[in-house]
Amino acid sequence: MKKSMKLITAVAAVFLLAQPSLFAERGGRMSDDGRGHEKRCMKERGGPLFGDPGRMQKDLGLTDAQMKRIAEINRDHEKKMLDYREKLAPKEIHLERLLLEDSVDMDKVRALLREISDLRMELQLMRIQHRLEIEKVLTPEQKSKMKQHRKHRMMKPGGPGPGM
Predict the structure, then answer these.
(1) pLDDT digits (tens, 9 = 90+) for 139-163
(2) Fewest C-beta atoms under 10 Å: which of 6, 91, 102, 114?
(3) d(CA 131, CA 114)
C-alpha cells in the first residue's frame, strides 16, 4: 500500500510540475486549439510584441516601412514557432500516456521531460530572438519609448504577458 501511494504521489508531482509550464507556453489561457495568448496576438493584434499595431505605430512613431518589416518578422517567427509546436505536442501527449500507465517508468518520464524542456527552451530563445529582431527595426528613440511602454505594462495588474 505504501509503495503504491509513493508511486501515485511521484506521478502526481511530475504531472503537476509539468502543468505550469504548459500554461506558461500558452499564455495561461487556452483558445479552442490550445494556443491561447500567442495566437490571439499574431492573428488579431499584429504580433506578440505589439498589442494593437495601430496604437503602437502611433505611440512609437513607426513608419509604414517599419510596420511592414515588423509584420514580415512576425510572420517568419510564427512559421518557426509552428515547427517547434509540432515537435512539442506529440511529446506532451506521450508524457500524458506514460503517466497514465499502470506501471510508470520514471526513466522514460525523465528522458521525455528533458526533451520537452529542451524544446520549450528553444521556443523561449526564439521569442527573445524575435523581440531582438524587431528592436533592430526601431530607432533609438523608439526603443526608449518601447522600454517605457514595457515598464508601464509591468506595473499593470497581470504583468506584461508573453512577448513583452
Answers:
(1) 999 999 888 888 887 777 765 555 5
(2) 102
(3) 26
